[in-house]
Amino acid sequence: MKNFIRKNLLVIILSVTGAIGGFLYWKFIGCMSGTCFIKSVWYMSTLYGLVAGYITGSLINDIIRSFKKEKKYE
């Protein structure tokens, strides 16, 4: 478990940050009329923020790993 967390710490941090950002977006900017699918309920905007944070963290994590592998072989 420790090894999994250590390998994916950046992904976890950015996923949580994205979820918090999605919730805050709903809280302060969201759609009050209920016609906006993403912004009308808190759990949808939180979920979209979580997914966006996960994708961003995963991409950055892959880039960092590829640079480390290249540096190791040089």
Structure, described:
This protein is mainly α and 74 residues long. It has one domain. It contains four helices and no strands. The chain has helices at 2-7, 9-28, 37-40, 42-73. The longest helix is centred in the last third of the chain and has 32 residues, at 42-73. The two termini are 31 Å apart. The model has no long low-confidence stretch (mean pLDDT 87).
Structural class: mainly alpha
Roughly what fraction of the amino acids lie in strands? under 5%
The Rg value, from CA coordinates, equals 16 Å
What is the average of the pLDDT values?
Answer: 87
- How much helix is in the residues? over 70%
Task: Tell me about the largest β-sheet.
Answer: none
How would you describe the shape?
A: elongated
Number of separate domains: 1
Number of helices: 4
Parts with pLDDT < 50 across at least 5 consecutive residues: none
| Distance linking N and C termini | 31 Å
Q: How many extended strands?
A: 0
Q: What letter string, H or E per element, gives the SSE order? A: HHHH
In short:
The chain has four helices and no strands. The chain is an all-alpha fold and 74 residues long. The protein has one domain (7-73).
For the structure shown, list the relevant keywords.
elongated, 74 residues, single chain, mainly alpha
